[in-house]
Amino acid sequence: MIVGLTGGIGSGKSTVGKLFARLGVPVISADEIAHELLTHNHAVYQAVSNRFGDSLLDTAQQIDRRKLRNMIFSNPAEKQWLEDLMHPLIKQEIIQHVKNFVYPYCVVEIPLLLEVGWQDLVDRILTIDCSEELQMQRATSRDGNVDPNIATIIATQITRKERKAASNDVVENSGDLNHLSKRVEDLHHHYLELATYKHN
What we know:
Blueprint: E1 2-7, H1 13-22, E2 27-29, H2 30-37, H3 43-52, H4 65-73, H5 76-99, E3 106-109, E4 124-129, H6 132-143, H7 149-156, H8 160-165, E5 169-172, H9 177-199
Parallel strand pairs: 1-3, 1-4, 2-3, 4-5
């Protein structure tokens, strides 16, 4: 069984992914796959650096993902070009990873699961939700400074109401880590039961 883990920026998806991983659940991150595709030894790196130029590279000649994000969010055509290039490759990698798992279920963390219409990849959708104020606070704290694009990113994602309506499970992540851990453990047992039922 495949659980699609999603939520807005700063909602706590990565934290939840780590909590599932600690319980022994295989977790795939679409962001990590994207990061891998943009590394120096991949054809995508060449295509992106050719498209946007050397100003996108850091001192180690790697693509600066924050600069790339800033470039595409101010230019819808370039954003579309990058998505057309990367999304099919990310999807292909996810499918390949899932095939290798023998655990009863796995979690696939896809921030834009609903926005890009990848519901066909998963059996259930788990959304991590919190207020926009908390999203801004967490994303700013994580990135180390105030990024004017955070509000833009939130605006380009579907609304919390739409995301929750499309989900099988919703975790409200407004409390502390202990509360979140307990919620993930409960879901873990629930998913194990569902996966067993699905395979029988």
